[in-house]
Amino acid sequence: xxxxxxxxxxxxxxxxxPAMAQDATAPASNWYGTLGYTGQTxxxxxxxxxxxxxxxxxxxxxxxxxxxxxxxxxxxxxRNGVRTKQDSAxxxxxxxxxxxxxxxxxxxxxxxxxxxxxxxGSTIPVVxxxxxxxxxxxxxxAQYMFDGVNGVRGEYTKFVGQGRGADSxxxxxxxxxxx
Length: 179
Hints:
Blueprint: H1 2-20, E1 31-42, E2 48-59, E3 64-79, E4 82-99, E5 104-120, E6 129-145, E7 150-161, E8 168-178
Antiparallel strand pairs: 1-2, 1-8, 2-3, 3-4, 4-5, 5-6, 6-7, 7-8
């Protein structure tokens, strides 16, 4: 029985050796993640808020991919006595890529989102509280990979929300990690 356990352990170690010898800069799959900061200017009252944004994406090929993202608000803005803060946002996108060099590329994305905001201090009671909305989102940006797995990404995304003045402009700077 001990011989079987030792043989199994030895085979496992030998099978793992080629995987450990792979280039550390080469991504293992088409999956990637990002983590960054999003500055947002709301069309409702011009409030400038901010959120931490995490994203998980999959590249189907060199030109096309998909990603989902989630944001959590980290700061608020007060305009005319009304405090606005983005509570959360959840979005899904189809992404088209255009390689510029081996390490740099530009991209465009279109998707759908859901945002929730907290508003306090309005003299109109119905304005105070939590507000949510759905949006169609259009964006573009660029990313640069330092090596095969680490990079930086900058982008602009327009959230076209429901209702008058519900649009917002979003600027994100993120760290990119390919898995």
